[in-house]
Amino acid sequence: MALKNINPTKTEAWKNLETHYENAKHYNLRRLFQEDEERGKGFVYKFDDFNIDLSKNLVSKETLSNLLSLANDVDLKDAIEKYFTGDIINVTEGRAVLHTALRSNSEEPVIVNGKDVKPQIRTALRKIKAFSGKVISGKWKGYTDKPITDIVNIGIGGSDFGPRMVVESLKYYQNKLNTHFVSNVDGDHVQEILKKINPETTLFVIVSKTFTTQETITNANTIRDWFLKSATVFDVAKHFVAVSTNIDAVVNFGIDKKNIFPMWDWVGGRFSLWSAVGLSISLSLGFDKFRELLDGAEKMDIHFRTSDFDQNIPVLLSLLSVWYNNFLNCESEAIFSYSHYLKDLPEYLQQAFMESNGKGVDRNGEEVTYQTGTIVWGSVGTNMQHSFMQLLHQGTKIIPADFIGFEESLYGDNDHHNKLMANFYGQIEALAFGKTREEAHLDLKVNGKLDDLARLLPYKVFSGNKPSTAITIKKLTPKTLGMLISMYEHKVFVQGVLWNVYSFDQFGVELGKELAKKMLKS
Ligand code: F6P
Predict the structure, then answer these.
(1) Quick one: which of 176, 399, 416, 445 is 20 to 30 A from 250 by CA?
(2) Which residue, judged by its Cα, is nearest atom 6 of ligand 1?
């Protein structure tokens, strides 16, 4: 059975939220903190190594309670169960959505079309483990009998963003293999990678569910031609492996059938890093760390599936997102990581959120009459403080932001880390509370700007009242990264349920591709 089809705007809770908004639109964070001394503690949610502080959002307990009623009115509980148990919730493509099964350690079977998918997942994981072990240990040899030193992942979209973001984020834990990613059909992108590698010691992992994607196949062919300048067709099998469902096309390419890793139609591209699509992660970190990543994701899955909504982190984050998008008319949300390792996270999340929920037709086939998918963007602190933060602090838009920070740095340089985190908290505080006219006046006076005071004063005021969520995590590890990604995946899912859209297709990316093909032919 598919997800229920409930127009959120017709629910009792939505109507209550509209009424509530008339009062809530005057919320002011300074006042909310003055009126409730416990606010700093009352909006904090702890789970495992995560601490989520919602206190600097433009909400009261009443807002949250109305939002939680919305989750009940759209029967989110029912949707979550269907999501985890293999219902065909990707209705437009007739597929289940089971990235959660990929990381599950439980014995509970997950049935798709009458068959338990868990055994195939276990087999694929064993294959990933054995293969990664061979390459990392040097047992896997290239055509001149040398061990592999470099991995090149060839893929695009979900076959690139996820593995690339994870490899980059967990660089600290990386082994001796150098990992590169080629995605863009831009030949210059390919050449820049080829410059860095040696055909004798490089393993190419072609990741393409369909094995027909123009960019990936073009890049794979160019790279194979380059490889064949120094090797023979008989050597291709030692240097190219594939992750795909299109076995015939992969074999035609010259890859040994033994070296094809599976993908399944019940795993969407943008949620696939937990499958063999993550092979380059396992190669780069070793299988054990890959497993830790999966285990972290599973931890968050269990929290999401079993926690009451009023304590459920992905649910709360999603409800907040709907509050901002549909009631406060915010158009975008920002993600700011105070760890340079996470610099690719916004790009990865853009696909997760915007390819999933950038939909204008509801589950009834009708055009929606309300806003759906938010624009997601972001960067790393502190670099972004020297860039677009001006607009967030003193511009005219409200952009709710997630600030992600870590209690510990990886190399343990406390001086740097204290400065980094002082900036993390400083930004959050500046956004929330701003600087009043009186405070700005005093500052100018103290700084001896008496002559210019009246002229400068308006420019020195910060209105504040800019919302943000502080996500502090103990330490960046495979486990906590897995939890973080899974948290956002479930946020995507809940948004889609609340907006009554189908989150797991992506027909919107097709038209441009079709036209590009036509143009090439003409
Ligand atoms: O961008 C659309 C998309 O279909 C993504 O969902 C997918 O991750 C990507 O293209 C690549 O597709 P494939 O893995 O089939 O090459």
Answers:
(1) 176
(2) 269
* Atom in ligand 1 nearest the alpha carbon of residue 277: 14
The pTM for the full model equals 0.97
The residues, ordered by sequence, that sit 6+ positions from 171 with a Cβ below 8 Å of its Cβ are 341
DSSP per-residue letters across 159-176: GTHHHHHHHHHTGGG--S
Considering all CA atoms of the chain, what is the largest pairwise distance in Å, rounded to the nearest integer? 81
Contact 432, 466 (CB under 8 A): yes
State the pLDDT at residue 1: 63
Q: β-pairing, 150-154 with 115-116?
A: unpaired
Q: Is residue 471 a contact partner of residue 403, using CB atoms and an 8 Å limit?
A: yes
Active site residue 386: yes
Q: Are strands 50-53 and 111-112 parallel, antiparallel or unpaired?
A: unpaired
* Closest C-alpha to ligand 1, atom 16: 208
For the Cβ of 157 lying below 6 angstroms from any atom of ligand 1, the answer is yes
Query: Tens digit of pLDDT for each residue in 40-52?
Result: 999 999 999 999 9
> Which residues have CB under 8 Å from 41's CB, separation 6+?
none
Domains of the chain: 8-90+307-433+467-509 (3.40.50.10490), 112-290 (3.40.50.10490), 434-463 (no CATH)
Distance from residue 363's CA to the centre of ligand 1 (Å): 23
